[in-house]
User: What shape does this take?
Amino acid sequence: MFLDIVIIAVSLLALAICGWFFLTRRLYNDYDEKHFLVGVLFSSTFAFSANLLQLVLFELLGVLSSRARWINWKIDLYCLLCALIFILPYYHAFSILQSYGIRPMRSAAVAVVAFLSFLYAFYRIGVHFQFESEAPGLAGIFTIAQAVKRVGVIGVVLLAVLSGFGAVNLPYTYLSLFTRHIREEEVQALQERLVQSVETTVMRKKKLLLLQADMQQATAATSTRGLMRRVMDSIGLSSSARRISVVDQ
Assistant: This one.
């Protein structure tokens, strides 16, 4: 059991150090003001969250005893719920008030009011979703099952919002990879091609109009010739009839 405790403590410490380095080396690069307490909260939350995944791997690989894994899971769950429900909301409210230049004592008092409002909204989530609770009233919040259900609802909603934002923002962000600067020579070449295409279209339209005019003239000439032939034929027939009548007389 002592070896299991050492493994759990070392793994949590290693994960916390990894979270601290990730925060200071990656996320803090664009920030001039760095708070030590923010680093502690981030690294501890990162360690407990990653340790849940590590427990799954430990169970698959047979590392630690079943009782040690169960105790470790309980510790992770209680610490994460405490951070998500109590510590982080209050500290977020306090930090936002501090960023507006409000004095620390007044910020702490207003943050308490904001935190109590958050707890009430957190409780009302279970009322609207009709979570069954063994302990009625506000006591239902402080049971692990009810807290996990409410945190799960909030997490699913936030994941849906972030997924929708990512689905729109990612193509917009990476669209610049498919764009390139167009040079003036390329624009002029495209303009010349456009002018050539327009001239070719105009010439073909002129040819089409000329062909239509020739066809109309040919049709008119053919109809005129046919009329003349019919007139001449009628004149020939009348003269022949006269000759026949003269011969008969």
User: Anything to note?
Assistant: The helical segments are 2-27, 36-61, 66-99, 104-129, 144-174, 184-248. The chain has a mean pLDDT of 82.
